[in-house]
Amino acid sequence: MPQFDNPDFLIIGAGAGGSTAARVLTERGFTVTIFERGGPSNAEDFIPLDELHFLDHKALIPLKEDDPQLYVDTAKPDAQPQEQERWWITNMVGGSTNQWEANLPRYVDSDMAVTRYLDGPVAGADMINWP
Ligand SMILES: Cc1cc2nc3c(=O)[nH]c(=O)nc-3n(C[C@H](O)[C@H](O)[C@H](O)COP(=O)(O)OP(=O)(O)OC[C@H]3O[C@@H](n4cnc5c(N)ncnc54)[C@H](O)[C@@H]3O)c2cc1C
Known about the structure:
Layout: E1 9-12, H1 16-27, E2 32-35, H2 51-54, E3 70-71, E4 82-83
Parallel strand pairs: 1-2
Antiparallel strand pairs: 3-4
This protein binds flavin-adenine dinucleotide.
The site of flavin-adenine dinucleotide has 25 residues, from helix 1.
């Protein structure tokens, strides 16, 4: 019987990251509960498979009335929250991973040394270079 009330791990979001983490953890015998804000989707949700309908992915991103979609440009000290469409986020089981385009660029050295390109530490984040 799944232990929804008292899992070993609680994961927020069922995209590629959260779902992969859940699989790895459950394969090792841990119990996991995932909270996903979007609903399930299946092939019928994408019918009529109209490419124009999905061309700019607006059929899949959250509506502004469902999601505040506020961004703050933290590089600007006096920046105020701005409402923006979050084109890259999809709220559904499977997350944005449902609509990725499958471009898989090869990693280069600079991808492994991200801190080299920062002015300094990022507040609230721990970042290390890939060993
Ligand atoms: C149109 C499009 C094309 C793309 N093409 C490519 C590509 O060609 N190559 C590539 O490498 N990458 C591509 N990407 C990016 C790639 O799809 C994402 O980087 C990847 O899917 C992110 O996975 P994730 O698990 O981090 O997040 P997501 O898949 O976005 O999952 C996050 C999940 O968390 C949920 N969530 C968020 N907040 C909450 C909350 N408060 N409570 C509960 N649930 C929450 C969301 O609903 C979502 O399901 C593309 C993305 C899009 C949208």
